[in-house]
Amino acid sequence: MDDLYRENILDHYRHPRNYGEIEQATIVQHEHNPLCGDQLSIYLLVENERIVDVKFKGKGCAISQASASMLSEELAGKSVDEAKAFDKQTILDLLGIPIGPVRLKCALLSLKTLKAGLYGVNLVDDDEDSL
Amino acid sequence: MSVQTTLDIQAIREQFPLLDQSINGHRLAYLDSTATAQKPLAVLDAMDRYYRTINANVHRGVYQISEAATEAYEGTRRTIGRFIGAKSTKEIIFTRNATEAINLVAQSWGRANLQAGDRILLTVSEHHSNLVPWQLLAAQTGVELDFIELDDQGRLDLSHLDQLLTERTKLVAMTHMSNVLGTINPVERVIAAAKQVGALVLLDGAQSVPHIPVNVQALGCDFLAFSGHKMCGPTGIGVLWARRELLEAMPPFMGGGDMIKRVGLRESSWNDLPWKFEAGTPAIAEAIGLGAAIDFLNELGMQAIHERERQLTHYAWDKLSAIDGLTIFGPPAAERGGLLSFTLAGVHAHDVAAILDTQGIAVRAGHHCTHPLHDIFGVPATVRASFYLYTLEEEIDRLAEALVLARDTFQL
Ligand SMILES: Cc1ncc(COP(=O)(O)O)c(C=O)c1O
């Protein structure tokens, strides 16, 4: 109970940071997680290879939405290259809770959306397929 | 409910070793039998005994244990046939599950009998397994799909049935009991109307056969598909029942050993029913396990099981509908089998299920393989609690308490 739904997760879910849209966004990316129907849109305003503004909108479970909210805080002010270097561990560290294989898709939806936006293709493997 | 069940639930629970464990410090409350049921000792023992004493391939060996294995495997066909009111063991085809049974009908009967412009009538509440096989067939043959919709209470809306059933309708394929709404559908009415236009009827019995008495003669359907694992049997075994004349006329579904009579290099002839549809070494232990599961259910009585689930459903309906922010989907308890799907305002279904899990309560969260139905509800996911012969009122009490906990944790 206390593990998965720590107060900071619930806080980000109830009061998502950077929620909304950017009208002049340089990058807009929508993704969804068919497993639980989570939806996410990320808006980035990039100037001189730096992310000067981030917003997101979405619907879904607490893990997916808290993950997006936390990621948005982390992204603000980062260079595009720094953002490209974000990986699965970045997200797990931000969430700070143990995530089982089933909820991993929820947790990584934000990263998947970000990477798809930055690279134009889906690069995030959210299945536990390592041998 | 004042009526007491005739079943001794505590004694039944002792037959299910898996139920006796704790999860996250709580006694496991398994409320996901609609997805798959737990297995009684009788089933575990029957399969164990098979592997320990008579494991051999069937229909081949002339030695003793192969004959014993064949007898046990074929004996299950009789058990199943009697259980659903079939006329002969030739009408009982073993498949992997309900899904494979439906695909068999689509690919064998469908491709041989349907052509572009023919129509198949489905309902919008079908499990993907009774929808996608028909979409595949439609793409292959040009057959068109029509759908019975729902009324505002989540019942099938049969008021347009006469328009939906046309001269070109060749098949009605529908679920006998919904795995999301719990509705026990008035299939008799649909079957009678289908007969008027000469359409055949396939019933998806994945949820009905495990939970209510089902007799194919009384129903008058033409095909019935179900899965062993939802009725206390093992995974990997399912059944297609069909009228013998239909099966006789249908071409094989898969080719290989066991389904042939004579094989030449360019041509072969097919085995008799039911083996014509069973290519390759079958799931022998699983069939034997399913036979044991049916014996187990028969001993308790399907009517008694159904009444017990009805009692649990009324109990759960009262408990859950008293929770603020909780919405139950589908018709009133009296028209249902033992399951309730619902949402809790402000809390995503997966979060609800995760919080219930912390309390040792296992429920399903998601779309339950019914995307179109969830689109109609306008929700991405629901939580589903389902009951079976081993469910206790006390587990439903714990469910209700944990739902209040979930709501309060997320208090927005
Ligand atoms: C109504 C219904 N039909 C079909 C199926 C498919 O069963 P299986 O996956 O065992 O083939 C299910 C199982 O969830 C079901 O509930």
From TrEMBL, chain A:
Lineage per the UniProt record: Bacteria, Bacillati, Chloroflexota, Chloroflexia, Herpetosiphonales
Record-linked InterPro entries: NIF_FeS_clus_asmbl_NifU_N
Listed SUPFAM superfamilies: SufE/NifU
UniProt protein name: Fe-S cluster protein
Domain (NIF system FeS cluster assembly NifU N-terminal) ranges: 5-118
GO terms, molecular function: iron ion binding; iron-sulfur cluster binding
One example of a Gene Ontology biological process annotation: iron-sulfur cluster assembly
Pfam families noted in UniProt: NifU_N (PF01592)
The organism's place on the tree of life at top rank: Bacteria
UniProtKB/TrEMBL annotation, chain B:
PANTHER family hit by this protein: CYSTEINE DESULFURASE, CYSTEINE DESULFURASE 1, CHLOROPLASTIC
Keyword Disulfide bond: no
UniProt source species: Herpetosiphon aurantiacus (strain ATCC 23779 / DSM 785 / 114-95)
Protein's UniProt name: Cysteine desulfurase
Record's catalysed reaction(s): (sulfur carrier)-H + L-cysteine = (sulfur carrier)-SH + L-alanine
Role of this protein: Catalyzes the removal of elemental sulfur and selenium atoms from L-cysteine, L-cystine, L-selenocysteine, and L-selenocystine to produce L-alanine.
Keyword annotations from UniProtKB, A to Z: Pyridoxal phosphate, Transferase
EC number: 2.8.1.7
GO MF, one annotated term: pyridoxal phosphate binding
Keyword Transferase: yes
Aminotransferase class V domain mapped to chain residues: 30-399
InterPro entries: Aminotrans_V_dom, Aminotrans_V_PyrdxlP_BS, Cys_dSase_SufS, Cysteine_dSase, PyrdxlP-dep_Trfase, PyrdxlP-dep_Trfase_major, PyrdxlP-dep_Trfase_small
Cofactor(s) recorded in Swiss-Prot or TrEMBL: pyridoxal 5'-phosphate
Annotated family: Belongs to the class-V pyridoxal-phosphate-dependent aminotransferase family. Csd subfamily.
Pfam families cross-referenced by the UniProt entry: Aminotran_5
